[in-house]
TrEMBL record:
Protein name per its UniProtKB record: Cytochrome P450
Ranges annotated as spanning the membrane: none
PANTHER family to which the protein is assigned, alphabetical: CYTOCHROME P450 2C9, CYTOCHROME P450 508A4-RELATED
Family: Belongs to the cytochrome P450 family.
Annotated InterPro entries: Cyt_P450, Cyt_P450_CS, Cyt_P450_E_grp-I, Cyt_P450_E_grp-I_CYP2D-like, Cyt_P450_sf, Cytochrome_P450_fam2
Organism: Bos taurus
EC number of this enzyme: 1.14.14.-
One GO CC term, this protein: endoplasmic reticulum membrane
Alphabetized UniProt keyword annotations: Endoplasmic reticulum, Heme, Iron, Membrane, Metal-binding, Microsome, Monooxygenase, Oxidoreductase
């Protein structure tokens, strides 16, 4: 077996092994096949830019966890970089990234923001969610819109203090811009612009890029408008939401000319929270319901556990999760199975790094194959099969796994991981406490094969009936 030289071009590799280098570029799902030939560390070229691919748990762990600081830089994404200009959490680097991430984590983890905890907010949204589902009257429906509203509203509650009605036009506009931007970022033309950023100078107002720009401007302007309202009623001793916490920090650092707490950073950070916290959670919920329709025996076991631990007359809370190992296992298995972001978001090395006898130059982009970790057949027997037993021991207790990297790992692990875990547990548990799920076709005929959209796996379209218990 020949290992690919990390500094060897995709074209050279193709010539050696008769691999079409365009296939390497456009079909990253083939990374697993390439790793069997070239090992866990190899290079592909996007245009003229080398990108090192890490495949398998050991290589990913060694980079993101053992050498976390060295691999903590965000990889290049020129289309977005022109919009965010170094601000926010997801695509920032250096001091801006470290300070903004630290603040955001601290704020999201602070369950005592004002007088309401984040769990209170999620529970309220769970109740609103099931009331919206009741309005379907047990008739077949596509759950996409409703399941998108719930996590978006949680983010709105955390950022703006209040949730929106699902028919509120401002709320619908925010959701529309977020959904459009996610689709645009996964489109082929945007991928071309990222690979050949020089084209941005020749086609700065292509439809996709212009739409991305105007949508981003809409969210930023809305955040600024709400920020001005917050400034007028701010009580530094009683912060109501994320914006209040940020404004208080701005006031504390008003004499620091190098401060990261600026209006520009606030608007981009909020946009990051919207984008990352809405689409990923709603897609996981939608995919999860499809898998539960496909496997009614799993759904029945969850509902038996709900009846035994919670009953039907009180709202689920996070304390319940420790007494519900099967539900915990199902939630982990849903995320493992669907493999939402197969290659995660690109990383980069922030210095020259010697990695497994290879020298990776500073600034080189890094792609980590989360698929190779989540679908490792030694850790998860029959990884292509949906089986909650992957996360249960022989006694039926929940079994943790280091291979569970659905939120990535290391210093760039998802900031909203804790919130997402809470939403998935409370939303799905509340839905299954309230409704029986009924498929409109024979469960055996349901297709759970992911439909790839851009850089994410999404479920195929489907309908179901929510029958009140």
């Amino acid at each position: 077996m020949i290992k690919a030289d990390p500094l060897k071009t995709t074209r050279e590799v193709a010539e050696e092994r008769n691999i079409d280098h365009t296939t390497v570029i456009w079909h990253l799902k083939q990374i697993g096949k390439l790793s069997k030939v070239y090992g866990p560390v190899f290079t592909v070229y996007f245009g003229m830019k080398p990108t090192v691919v890490l495949h398998g748990y050991e290589a990913v762990k060694e980079a993101l966890i053992d050498l976390g600081e060295e691999f903590s830089r965000r990889g290049s994404f020129p289309v977005i970089e022109r919009n965010v200009k170094g601000h926010g959490i997801v695509f920032s680097n250096g001091k801006t990234w470290k300070e903004t991430r630290r603040f955001s984590l601290m704020t999201l983890r602070n369950f005592g923001m004002g007088k309401r905890s984040i769990e209170d907010r999620v529970q309220e949204e769970a109740r609103c969610l099931v009331e919206e589902l009741r309005k379907t009257n047990g008739l077949p429906c596509d759950p996409t819109f409703i399941l998108g509203c719930a996590p978006c509203n949680v983010i709105c509650s955390i950022i703006f203090q209040n949730r929106f009605d699902y028919k509120d036009q401002t709320f619908l506009n925010l959701m529309k811009t977020i959904n459009e931007n996610i689709k645009i970022l996964g489109s082929p033309w945007i991928q071309v612009l990222n690979i050949f950023p020089v084209l941005l100078d020749f086609f700065p107002w292509s439809y996709s890029y212009k739409k991305l720009y105007t949508n981003t401007a809409y969210v930023k302007n809305y955040v600024l408008e709400k920020t001005r309202e917050h400034q007028a009623s701010l009580d530094i001793n009683n912060p109501r939401d994320f914006i209040d916490c940020f404004l208080i920090k701005m006031e504390q650092e008003k004499h620091n000319h190098q401060s990261e707490y600026t209006f520009e950073n606030l608007t981009i950070t909020v946009s990051d929270l919207f984008g990352a916290g809405t689409e990923t959670t709603s897609t996981t919920l939608r995919y999860g319901l499809l898998l539960l329709l496909k496997h009614p025996e799993v759904t029945a076991k969850i509902q038996e556990e709900i009846d035994r631990v919670i009953g039907r007359h009180r709202s689920p809370c996070m304390q319940d999760r420790t007494h519900m190992p099967y539900m915990d296992a199902v939630l982990h298995e849903i995320q493992r199975y669907i493999d939402l972001a197969p290659m995660s978001v690109p990383h980069a090395v922030n210095c020259d790094v010697k990695f497994r006898n290879y020298l990776i130059p500073k600034g080189t982009d890094i792609l980590t194959s989360l698929t190779s970790v989540l679908h490792d057949d030694k850790e998860f027997p029959n990884p292509e099969v949906f089986d909650p037993g992957h996360f249960l021991d022989e006694n039926g207790n929940f079994r943790k796994s280091d291979y569970f990297m659905a939120f990535s790992a290391g210093k760039r692990v998802c900031v909203g991981e804790g919130l997402a875990r809470m939403e998935l547990f409370l939303f799905l548990t509340t839905i299954l406490q309230t409704f029986t799920l009924k498929s409109v076709v024979d469960p055996k005929d349901l297709d759970t094969t992911p439909a790839v959209t851009g850089i994410a796996n999404v479920p195929p379209p489907y309908q179901l009936c929510f029958i009140p218990v």
